[in-house]
């Protein structure tokens, strides 16, 4: 895996990232740090990636478990250390899983497998942060 990050030049703290798969992402800083607030902060991207990683796992596990999953969202709420390095110290993941006749124990198992075994991002973040999770099931 690789990526290339390029500063977009004087007058701000915007960066363009090109991923190894050829996709582009822009990041920017807060105005108090010299940014222009034009794009997500780098640490927000870490949180976004973590949410995407675990949601992907949960959907995949539920599908393989023959659950009729129709939707999955995960809302992350994170706290960071007050001093440098400002690592994540707490992260809560709240999943809303939509489907038909979903088995709550299967949903909980999928979330646990993601957090304990498959989601590389959440496993890395767990080195500095206390992770918690909860879920709701919405019948459609």
Automatic annotation (TrEMBL):
The record's listing under InterPro entries reads: KH_dom-like_a/b, OsmC/Ohr_fam, OsmC/Ohrsf
Superkingdom, natural source: Bacteria
Under the heading Gene3D superfamilies, the entry gives:
3.30.300.20
User: What NCBIfam families does this protein map onto?
Assistant: PRK10738.1
Q: What is this protein called?
A: OsmC family protein
